[in-house]
Amino acid sequence: MQGTLYIIAAPSGAGKSSIVRALLARDAGLSLSVSYTSRAARPGEVDGRDYHFISADEFEAMVAAGDFFEYARVHGDWKGTGRQAVEPLLAAGRDVLLEIDWQGARLVRQKVPEAVGIFILPPTRAALEERMRKRAQDSEDVIRRRLAGAREEMRHYDEFDYVVINDVFETAVSEICCILTASRLRRAVQAAHHAALVAALLGEG
Ligand code: 5GP
Q1: Which of 135, 34, 111, 40 is nearest to 78 (CA)?
Q2: What digits encode the pLDDT tens for the residues 35-80?
Q3: Half-sphere exposure (CA, 13 Å, Cβ side) for 140?
Q4: Rounded Cα distance, 149 and 76, in Å
Q5: Starting from the edge strand earliest in sequence, which strands make up the sheet with 30-32, in order?
């Protein structure tokens, strides 16, 4: 029995982290993979919860040891999903959520073609800019760079199976819950989960 792998990607400023938090609270069948990164923790970020914060050398050692399920350089920092955060859970039949960028999503799709990809878009360009400005007290230059990064990420939205617009937060969360439910009802998944039932129903006599 295999769990399902879900990939959620979005430009920064689309509200992805809040959506993921709401999904985990609502859906007990879902586990979030905590990524490794070589970037420094931001104020408020907790090691082991937001990321496993490691040095660039440690990251390279993990790459050499084949410890990553996927990894990519994202905005100058290394980010990666540990194999241990994914493979044992999937093998035990749990569904796993990866919050990763489009490059990592491509690698995952090559490995696991049946992974379900969800892309979150902001409702308008103005909303995206506003969320970025609100979040950071950064200089105009940094904000411009972030916006360019967001556009680069959004260019890849068409590589995902589902697109959710985060206009009304609750609606976006509900829509993703619907995607989770529908994907769990796919015939291949149901056939694996209910093999005994199907055998009994189709059996002779
Ligand atoms: P931030 O540095 O703002 O936390 O994340 C920036 C980007 O890195 C986001 O698009 C996020 O999806 C991506 N990211 C986070 N963890 C991983 C990971 O393990 N692998 C990949 N490929 N991207 C990641």
Answers
A1: 40
A2: 999 999 999 999 999 999 999 999 999 999 999 999 999 988 999 9
A3: 0
A4: 11
A5: 30-32, 95-99, 5-9, 116-121, 162-165
Prediction pTM value: 0.94
Burial 14-39 (b: 16+ CB within 10 A, else e): bbbeebbebbeeebeebbbbbbbbbb
Q: Which of 8, 74, 106, 107 to mutate to test the pocket of ligand 1 (most atoms within 8 A of CB)?
A: 74
Chain segment 128-138, per-residue pLDDT in tens: 998 888 766 66
Nearest CA to ligand 1 atom 10: 101
Where in the sequence is the domain holding 178, given as residue range(s)?
Answer: 5-33+95-202
- Is residue 116 situated within a structural domain? yes
CATH code where residue 128 lies: 3.40.50.300
**Is 44 inside a domain boundary?**
no
| Ligand 1, CB within 6 Å, residue ranges | 12, 35, 39, 70, 72, 74, 79-81, 99-101, 103-104
Ligand 1 atom nearest residue 50's Cα? 4
What is the torsion angle, in degrees rounded to the nearest 10, for the CA atoms of residue 198, residue 180, residue 22 and residue 120?
A: 170
The total domain count for the chain is: 1
| Inside any domain, residue 132 | yes
